[in-house]
Amino acid sequence: MSYPGFQYDEISTSLLSPSDYANPVPQDDYHLAVIGAGPAGLISAIGAAGLGARVALVEQGFMGGDCLNVGCVPSKALLEYTKAVPDADFDDAFTHLRAVRAGIAPHDSVARYNELGADVFLGAARFSSAGDLQVGETTLPARKIVICTGARAALPPIPGLDDCDALTNESIFNLTARPRSLAILGAGAIGAEMATVFARLGVQVHLFELAERVLPLEIPAASEAVAEALVSLGVTLHLGQGVDSIARLDGSAGFAVAAAQRVEVERVFVALGRTPNTDALGLEHVAVTRDERGFIQTDDKLRTSNRKIYAAGDCTAQQQFTHYADAQARVVVQNALFAPTASVKNMIVPHCTYTSPEVASVARTPDVDESDYDKYEFDLAELDRSRTQPEGSGFASVLTRKGTDEIVAATVVGEGAGDLLAGIMLLMSNGLGLSAMAKVMLPYPTRSEFLKRLADAYNKTRMTPLVARIFKWWFR
Predict the structure, then answer these.
(1) Is 371 left (phi over 0), alpha (psi -120 to 50) or beta?
(2) Which of 297, 307, 422, 423 is the most buried (most CB within 10 A)?
(3) 41 CB-near residues (< 8 Å, 6+ apart)
(4) For 248-274, what is each residue's pLDDT tens digit?
(5) Do 433 and 427 touch, CB atoms closer than 8 A?
(6) Could you tell me where the beta strands, DSSP code E, fall in 212-254?
(7) What is the DSSP letter of 436?
(8) How far apart, in Å, are the Cα atoms of 326 and each of 17, 38, 110, 298, 388?
(9) Which residues have a Cβ under 8 Å from the Cβ of 183 and sit 6 or more positions away?
(10) Computed over its alpha carbons, how large is the radius of gyration of the chain?
(11) 117-142 pLDDT, tens per residue?
């Protein structure tokens, strides 16, 4: 089959799920067996193998998991391409995403992990009634096991949704032709990013969100900035509107989406949360506890209710980000192979939505009572670097503990917000307050100067009436 970029998909498939691959003969005893080769599984496997442990790595789909194949990599490839190329062509954009994916594939390939010391088994893993870990008819004896099976798009019980061939993150990047119109259900990070991409590609986009604003988990000012940008791209926002039903149109390709308004579209894309890939594992045979949604329950050391078995990544329902899965995997390697001293308890986990403008946040939720904290804000348009750039607007908002410079939460909105948040993360992760930036020399002109401006704003609060009187006496 020929479609835009098909040659790159052939490369990816040959590396990540080779059809001619023969599973190895299992060793008598593995120190660690890893189920799932997404970010958490790959880091767990390569970390353990690098230390000399005997490792089995099992994957039933494509190595690299959602992140490489149907998540971070393809979505960001499309976002960057459509941002850089005015009036981007659909075929060129999707060829680009497939080329990017193929370029990264060798890093996550079956061959590479075999070479690095992990025994890679392609197939579905399951615990037998006897509690053994099996891939098909093959048993993998292991001292410790980590489940890293990830999650998939949740499909809510909307009448007609099952019959409309709805797109999810697992299928939208496989499109081979541009739809004329698209309804996106859910205006969280995934929905907002895909609305941005397809609007730039000339698709008529309708974005539905039950909450009253896009990115409802961000602060209102961030939601407003992204909403304005989406509307400027031509996206029609249906906020505060749940979808009641979806029905196939008579006599034509397409569907009618019924909400407060009835909208006719060619395709429907669902971005309404995630559900864990845990149902087919046979967890009942090994007494691993799941919550009511099916996510595996762990303690702060990522141990499940079965002390032989750990879990990491999106299947645990903790914060579902690739960088957090990476950090969890490092905890698993320490605790499964050595003394269980590592913990995720005090990890500070940021996140970023790669719309234009970007929205990057840490420890910030819309329901925080800001009056409980000191608040420092800065308009990024005031930076000299921003004045030189067409996309120089945005803002930074930082909350500190009352009367101190200890950062408890932050949001940055603007060009490169995810990169700008790095300085804040460095301060928070090392127990440094906002004022520490006052000592840092930064190149001029850069957007990173916003942190020095915030530090200056904090230092001005230290000019108490007593200090002012002392200075007045000194300079008399």
Answers:
(1) alpha
(2) 423
(3) 34, 35, 57, 59, 65, 146, 148, 312, 313, 329
(4) 998 778 999 999 989 999 999 999 999
(5) yes
(6) 236-239, 245-248
(7) G
(8) 22, 10, 19, 16, 37
(9) 206, 208, 243, 255, 257, 263, 265, 267, 268, 269
(10) 25
(11) 999 999 999 999 999 999 999 999 99
